[in-house]
Amino acid sequence: MYKQMFMAALCAAGLAMAGCSKHGADAQGTAAGSADTTPVRISVGSYNLNNLPFFIADSKGYFKDLGLEVKTENFAQGGSKVLQALVANSTDVAVGFYDHTIQMQAKRKDVVGFVLLSRNSGLVMAGRDDATFDPARPDTIKGQKVGITAPGSSSDFFVRHFLAQHDIPVDSISLIGVGSGAAAVAALEQGKIDLLVNYDPAATLITERKVGKIIIDARSDEGARQVYGGLYPTSVMYANRSFLEQRPEAAEKIARAEQMALKFIADNSAEDIVAALPDSYVSGDRATYARAVENARAIFTTDGHFTAADLETPLKVLREFNKDVANADIDLSRTYTNAFVERAHAATPAAQP
């Protein structure tokens, strides 16, 4: 009911224009009747491969092709920093993780995911070959220095979920922010941390460089169900609800650009995907990065749609250790919308390259 009311309000206000009417696109792929030419500030929290569809859309110029000027910023410090920027209105759209929208609802802030990029976690826990932690003996994690991308990130939540599942106090380990990609791998290799919770390309770099071994792997659907009890949607495009209400054309164009990127990922080899990226988006050598892309391929959505049932998993996990979420009446239907991906798909069903 809420989503129908939301769309009706947009159309009634005359803001949706081409999106509400399902008109086609002009020869350049720009939404018919488009009038929103104000640049959009988009921030991304890390170079992990969960965010790959955004990197592809940006590097291949899909935003520009759709008539949208985008100004990007990469914090490279984890999604929690991007969330802070969004709440402070220093960015318009974040490339971050879905669970942050649940956290914000618990704090009575209206943050909404409007494109789902990665349908599954993609996280691993790794250690050096001499690691003493054994997940079959959960208490062996005590006293370990565990590297995460940043405090408040989903890698942080991964660790806290494991601890909560086994009644292990958080203060029995040390959580250390080490970023992602090659920098995170270096922290493990240099002994600054004992364990690393991170995403590809870090996971592949660890095995390729023989830095260590994967101890827990949630990249596959089966692995995610073993870790979380279900799929754990991660990377999304999210924004304050006010942005989506005031700039629906921009939101639709972002959704269209991401659908183009997701199709490019689905239709091309890992080598061709990596070839489309500038060096700034690639961790390590390109051949290794291509193997990381192939390892992560299964986590991506095909068209940006959210599946309501899967959103229950991050809510369940957050309630284990986040008191704000545990004590709040969370309405998951307000944490996401499929309205813009549906309008984007309807606008150019056959024109996506």
Quick summary:
The chain has a five-stranded mixed sheet with strand order 2-1-3-10-4, with helices on both faces. The protein contains 17 helices and ten strands. The protein is an alpha/beta fold.
Distance between the termini: 34 Å
Average pLDDT rating = 87
Classify the beta-strand content into a percent band.
5-15%
Task: Categorize the overall geometry.
Answer: globular
**What structural category characterises the helix and strand content?**
alpha/beta
Largest sheet: 5 strands, mixed
Individual helix count? 17
Contiguous low-pLDDT stretches (5 residues minimum) are 1-34
The beta-strand count equals 10
Provide the succession of SSEs: HHEHHEHEHEEEHEHEHEHEHHHHHHH
Write up this protein.
By secondary structure, this protein is of the alpha/beta class. Helices cover 41% and strands 14% of the residues. It contains 17 helices and ten strands. The relative contact order is 0.20.
